[in-house]
Amino acid sequence: MCGIVAKVSSENVLPFLIEGLKRLEYRGYDSAGVAVLQNGKIVVTKQKGKVNELEKLLDENPIGGNVGIGHTRWATHGKPDNINAHPHMCNDQSLALVHNGIIENYQALKDILIEKGYTFLGQTDTEVLVNFIDFIKKSEKLNTLEAVKLALKEAVGAYAIVLFDKDIPDSLIAARKSSPMVLGIGIDALYIASDVTPIVKYTNKIIYLNDEEVVVANKNAEYSISNLKNQAITPIIQEIEVKIEALEKGGYDHFMLKEIFQQPSTITDSMRGRINTDENWVHLNGVEDNLSRFLKAKRIIIVGCGTSWHSGLIGEYMIEDLARIPVEVEYASEFRYRNPIISEKDIVIAISQSGETADTVAALELAKEKGAFLYGVVNVVGSSIARLVHSGSYIHAGPEIGVASTKAFTSQIVILLLIALRLGKAKGTIDERKYIELISALESVPSKVQTILENIDQIKYIASEIKDHNNAIYLGRGISFPVALEGALKLKEISYIHAEGYPAAEMKHGPIALIDEDMPVFVIATNERAYEKIISNVQEVKARKGKVIAIVPFGEKIISKIADHCIFIPEIEDEISPLLSVIPLQLLSYYVSVMRGCDVDQPRNLAKSVTVE
Ligand code: F6R
Known about the structure:
The protein folds into 3 domains: 3-246, Aminohydrolase, N-terminal nucleophile (Ntn) domain (Glutamine Phosphoribosylpyrophosphate, subunit 1, domain 1), CATH 3.60.20; 255-452, Glucose-6-phosphate isomerase like protein, domain 1 (Rossmann fold, 3-Layer(aba) Sandwich); 455-601, Rossmann fold, CATH 3.40.50. It is built from 20 helices and 26 strands. 37% of the residues lie in helices and 23% in strands. By secondary structure, it is of the alpha/beta class. A hairpin with a 4-residue loop joins strand 12 and strand 13. The protein binds fructose -6-phosphate (F6R). Fructose -6-phosphate binds next to helix 10 and helix 17.
């Protein structure tokens, strides 16, 4: 949430700031702003709305300088408007600061500052923080770096901040705690950002800052890192590889569409080198290195949020079914606050695309404290969760920029299935024939996804039929139930149509009351184990005049006669069916959103990376 970007060099940094903010816009897009040091004075330009709006304003009133900071906001404290937009300056305009995170004790700090005569223009915790640093600097007669450190020791909460001081012309100060921040080392410039996406075009040398570390960077590309205790830190410089094309739309109208269409290759990437159909093996380094721990585990707890929680539910079916290890799936946000029972014999698997979700990080920290073994299923390399866990598997889906998660979901499922297969094989809970069948079925998934992606016309037609409805229900049974939840989430988050996912049999315990001719009901009927039962559920919906859109395997003969629309997808083993059945649901949501004129990649009120609680 919120994107931060900064640069110091001997040239004008503004073009980098704007380009960087556009790359980070998926993190928040309520308002955007920049500050540069121009002729010894801090100049701030900020604006409600997206980075494009800010860019227009800057075209009309150009600014420039060789040190600068930028911010794209997802509002926490204070409404999204021009005043609350970052950067913020202190009262005497000597410091400018951008911030991602929440300063929880900001009100107490604000009260102290008001008493000392400070005034505030808006409602943000960030404006409090920059003034608090200024207050400490002046009252304790400290230099800016010392004041930043002392102020951050008093601040409770999460922060990634970058600031500069008009009296220290060629340098930036940045710090983080519980919010991500990276430093990019160029030949003649230093870059700071919330993640690597704004930086990779200029350098592949990256330092991931750790909690309570503070960096001072200057225009000669010199930097030093120390922590709040004033200990010098020797950083690890990592060479990262992200191709710039991976961050572009590549000819698609939206990132979401590109990411849906990438799935044949992202699914292949997530299993590359991890399965072999000639020799019938499954190999995940993280599981292999910790196999005895997995085999001795009394229980696996999966934590995640949103779409990642849905893939966790699918993982539960797979691991319990194939490896016979009890699995619990928890919303990370609930888990951390309910005093859960966790022991050293538990394995906690965290699922997260961004690797930065605050609730998931906090759930892991709690589980680590209680001695559990932590395993990450993460997309973003070097992210906070990737660094916090004891071991894990990257999903290798590549940058996911559309706010609605698509390709990360399918790649997460691949990893969970590989875990289930490997553990099932090691425990002897899966018979050899089934094991071989599933490995070869998994290998067939990318081409089957491709087949579904070729059926766009029918999906567009169905989208046009449902686009004017205000509600929708998604039904599934067994392993298709989480797919129903995911289908409903995709529809609501990008088209703002109210949608609910239900286990199909549960419908008669309440939601059936909602069904009439105005209610589209999506039925995921691709898993054979639940097939007979779901036929009855479809009959129940039709008897109440609901409009049924069913997803069924090619050749299906019963539901396809009753349903209003049927989307046929290739046949596949039940355990793998979510990898196929979710694709038409992603596409449907995408086209409904486009037809309703919604902002597909940046839906209202959302942000890609939820780094606040
Ligand atoms: C939905 C979506 C969100 C995320 C959730 C967790 O399309 O993107 O529900 O799945 O915020 O994010 P990660 O996976 O980054 O932890």
